[in-house]
Amino acid sequence: MSGLTPHRIVAELDKYIVGQTEAKRQVAIALRNRMRRQLITGEIHSEIKPKNILMIGPTGVGKTEISRRLAKLTTSPFLKVEATKFTEVGYVGRDVESMIRDLVDIAIDLVKEEAIIRVEDELHEMVEERLLDALLPIDQDNAEDNAERAERAQRTRAKLRRKLHRGDLDERYIEINIEAQIIPQLEVLGQEGIDQIGIDMTDMLSGIIPISTRKRRVKIKEARPILFDQLVGEMINIEEIRQRGIKLAEETGIIFLDELDKVAAGGREERGGPGVSRQGVQRDLLPLLEGTTVRSRYGNVSTENILFIAAGAFNMSKPSDLIPEIQGRLPIRVELEDLTAEDFMIILTHPKDALVKQYKALLSVEGVELEFEKEAIAEIAEIAYRLNQTTENIGARRLATVMEKLVEEISYTADRRRGEKIVIDCDYVRSRLEGIVEDPDLSRYIL
Description:
Elements: H1 6-14, H2 21-38, H3 44-47, E1 53-56, H4 63-74, E2 78-82, H5 98-118, H6 120-135, H7 140-143, H8 147-166, E3 173-180, H9 190-197, H10 201-206, E4 212-219, H11 220-235, H12 238-252, E5 254-258, H13 274-290, E6 293-296, E7 299-302, E8 307-312, H14 324-328, E9 332-335, H15 341-349, H16 355-364, E10 369-372, H17 374-390, H18 397-406, H19 408-413, E11 421-424, H20 426-438, H21 440-446
Parallel strand pairs: 1-8, 1-9, 2-5, 5-8, 10-11
Antiparallel strand pairs: 3-4, 6-7
Helix pairs in contact: 1-2, 2-4, 5-12, 6-11, 15-17, 17-18, 17-20
């Protein structure tokens, strides 16, 4: 079994996400149970389904980031969608099944990238040979007749190869054959109609319309990616890639369904009003959560083992406002906590991608050394926390707004301050932000 134990999953998530221990534990258990299921044999294997999760908490507390990092950790196909993008069948908007097709597209891309990596060295060698053929065409008819000429051509080819490796020939023009297939744009049902019935008109027409080849004069540095893409199509079996992509999506796919609270009726549903469509979206989601088969352009896709992580703030509605069937298909409930000033301090400094580290890296490009005193970081965290309390609570996203305002002047003049060391202390933070924080109108619109 994979070394991704629940403890290790939580430890990996801790590197990027502050707090929310309970949420991390729950997703770690759900992921580990999926791995356990894959090793079970017998009839019970098909009876064990992923336990879908409902995360409840305000924006900016880590709901999306937990799911995204989980997918990266397991190299699983991951898709984030907003429930508000979808409408009930019969209304204008996207069909809920389109999220499964999007997930399959992502999975196929992952499998294709993996297949390319395995043959990448061979592909680069083949590209090099084609570039050499274009630079020094080999006369097959006369090569054997004149051994001396053939040997001289090989020496020249070896010299050109060395120059290619050094990049000396990148600006030289060559002629290469480029395959082109002109497929007309057809407006049959509109983009959404085509998407909903799972048909790719481009794929259908590509089998009918012949591929034409034409010569094109390009620089060698431009020819490399063109030839590489052509050879990829020759080296990998695209049909096998698609089938493996479907299987990957079915077995390890993760869908993060955000803003589920926005399609909850919230007790305000009126006959014929918007609540009808909201409830329709929930009912359309039911089969996906329960496990059904969705038709895609590459084949049928089963949703039985796809892990759904739903999320919402639920400040205007409650989870109990969701229709009972949806509630039953989201058995794991996790309530994420509001972030404190202490959490903000940790977010600013501890994670691998902490904001303070990001701004230091950005300004180091200009030759400016940026340093934050501990008291300054504490003041930034306190200001962000107070703003969340007095205006809209947007969680950790408030830090990005505050930090951008704080270093605005430094970022603007950084090109003129090369070689300087700039220390941001508590007084500087207050001078840049205190006036805005104290004025509720300014803080509402600027921070």
